[in-house]
Amino acid sequence: MNAGPAMNALPAIGDATAIGDAPTTKVVPGATPLLRVRGLSVALPDFSAPRGLLGLSRAPLRPILQGVDMELSCGECLGLVGESGSGKTTLGRALLRLVAPTAGRIEFDGRDIAHETEAAMRPLRARMQMIFQDPLSSLNPRRTVGDAVVQPLRAYGRLGTRDEARRAAAMLLEQVALPAAFASRYPHELSGGQRQRVGIARAIALSPDLVVADEIVSGLDVSTQATILLLLRELRARLGLAIVFITHDLSVVRVLCDRIAVMREGRIVEQGTTADVFAAPRDHYTRELLDAVPLPDVERGWLDPLATAA
Amino acid sequence: MSAPVLEIEGLHVLLRGERREPDRLMLRGVDLSIRPGEVHALVGESGAGKSMIARTVLGILPHRAQVASGHVRLLGHDWLKMPPAARRAMLGRDVSLIPQDPMSALSPAHTIERQICEVLRLHLPMSAQAARERALALLDAVRIREPARVLHQYPHELSGGMRQRVLIAIAFACGPRLIVADEPTTALDVTVQREVLRLLRTMQQRGGGQSGGTAVLFITHNLGLVAKLADRVSVIHGGRIVERGLVAEIFDAPHAAYTRALFAATPRHDRPAEALRPIDPAVTAALDVEAAAYDNAWARAR
After folding, report:
1. pTM value?
2. B146 CB-contact burial (10 Å; exposed 0-12 / middle 13-18 / buried 19+)
């Protein structure tokens, strides 16, 4: 499949032939990575900690990320896995500077953005986008779908006339295999999978280089999940998107990601290509996570109490 | 073989349309039978009718839904014809629920002790002291560390896995014959999920005092959970059971096209990415055509 950058000359989305193809990437060997993270630490106030006599002193900082190193090449998809509380969501947000790091460097396209001002971040923000877990709470219920997907373009002054907005909305919806007529609908009229497509359409509106997707298929049915995964794989190949895909489901990672980073307690405990890590996990925690995924095979003893209970 | 705990025959549930909308059939002649001590998985996608079956069994159908025809026999009772008071006496004691979302199922304003003791004292002749002791034993049985401390805690002080354990304790409190588990692990991490399933399996086999164990109607969309936990499975789509049988047999050789499509659409970390196939729209379209034909025939027969 041709991974050209021209959005207009793309093949129709959703045709069955594209589905079985292996993901193609635009990664150029030896090129500067899109993201290069070194020693990234984030600490957030811990409001559950006891706070002095009258509770007036400031909440102490609790370390969430502790010295994270990672890289992401252009067009690459990295699966970020771990349990709740492992720091994967915080890392995803820190990469987009949605939370401020306490230490470390985040180089985006060669430039350290860890401590940039919001004004300096603004032009960069067009190049980095986020898809949220729950599309219903991330879409304005009073805005039509068409309005929602072109909002990023409007925010960056890339839309002129109403007609332009209409055409942009139709094109974005087509990218995620939704009919153009959906532009006039409201989020509550859509199914979960359709809403998630709208979330994706909005994220790709500005043709970003990087998209962080946080648990975006967790709440979906099997069949919807499969179509969303394949849509992402296709968009990625077509638009040359780099994706940080945050999930707790290792089976999903296998479908989409080139590389995987396993997080535990604010650190990355194992990193590698998806194939390598799944074939021979080096860290025992990765092994534990893999074993805990219930594969649809009948297996006696999978639920037996642990023999090591003594 | 002893009589089934739950026997559903030809169950039709109708959802009355709002304003100008026509009435819609949500369940189209469902048959389901669960034997004592058996784990029966009901697997399907959202809107398939899984929850409608659960809600019929628990007598909590939504306002606009009604049973149009069919029979439900629960522990030998004609469940749909029982007086509400008699049903209420059985709910929570002989039949109980493990809900999906522990945060909304537990009251945020009451301690764990109070919420466990409530169901015990409602159904069993028990002193407050005896109920407290039993509550402590239940928390211990669901392997909560420091049960005496947790008894006096509130739900928000517990982790998601702990809350789900508390709900399992409440569900098993009175030694039920049947438990309806509605996606009980969907909100949990994989490692916690495995622990909770282990616990459910142990408690189910032990049966809270029922010889032969407690039967479970396990509602899920996750084929992996079905494989690991269930003895039998019914695959549901469009309010109809499209395939049923022993888990061992169906997972070995699924017969219905829809079941096969569900398997192919389930991602697995031990298979290459190319193995994933979304459900062929033709498969569901064929089922929809059958459902429409069924509705026409059903409307004519009425």
Report:
1. 0.87
2. exposed
